[in-house]
Design goal:
Helices cover 55% and strands 16% of the residues. It has four helices and six strands; from the N terminus they run ααααββββββ. Helix 3 packs antiparallel against helix 4. The N and C termini lie far apart (108 Å). By secondary structure, the protein is of the alpha+beta class.
Length: 197
């Protein structure tokens, strides 16, 4: 076992501490602090690090600016889309108001003492005008009578017995026509389907 009173020898392995100890006498080292220069490769690395930090900050600022611009663009696009939707909606309703005007004219003619045939013809013309307006918006009517039942565009509301004219699974009656908008079903046709069961 070692003696607890024995002094411990410490060896400083830092190169700059050794260089200072070797160059300066012990009394001078104790009196004034010794400044040392970092090796050139450390200085170069620190300079590169500072440059990279500057570059990184520039990139961060650019990303923040791009995010602000993106957010502003997204808000503009939303506003433009909402405005376009509102203009389209107004255009549709303005077109349909012409149909209402013609219905008003037909009713006024009927009240003025016109014949039932004239009223019927006027309402039929308005109906045709309305269907023509719908076709202008890509809406077409589903005419399912005599067609095989298709659950994609028909809604069976009742079942009727099979006849010579309407076989099993064929649409035998239409309670309300269906409509397509483009190729998609806007409203299925409410139909009666012929069935043996």
């Amino acid at each position: 076992m070692s003696d607890p009173q024995e002094p411990v020898k410490v060896v400083d392995r830092r190169w700059w501490a050794r260089a200072v100890a070797e160059d300066a006498p012990a009394s001078a080292a104790a009196e004034e602090p010794v400044l040392f220069e970092k090796p050139s490769y450390v200085q170069e690395l620190e300079q590169q690090l500072a440059e990279k930090n500057e570059q990184l900050q520039e990139y961060i600022n650019a990303v923040h600016e791009a995010q602000r611009e993106f957010e502003a663009m997204r808000l503009r696009v939303r506003k433009d889309a909402a405005r376009d939707a509102e203009l389209s909606r107004r255009s549709v309703f303005a077109d349909l108001l012409e149909v209402v005007d013609n219905l008003d004219r037909a009713l006024a003619a009927a009240h003025a003492g016109g014949s039932a045939d004239a009223l019927f013809s006027g309402v039929e013309l308005v109906r045709q005008q309305f269907l023509h307006k719908l076709a202008g918006y890509g809406i077409s009517r589903i005419e399912p009578l005599g067609e095989p039942f298709d659950p994609e565009c028909h809604e069976a509301i009742t079942v009727v017995p099979v006849t010579e004219q309407f076989g099993e699974g064929v649409v035998a009656g239409v309670a309300a026509p269906g409509y397509l908008i483009g190729d998609d079903v806007l409203r299925p046709a409410a139909v009666a389907v012929a069935s043996d069961s």
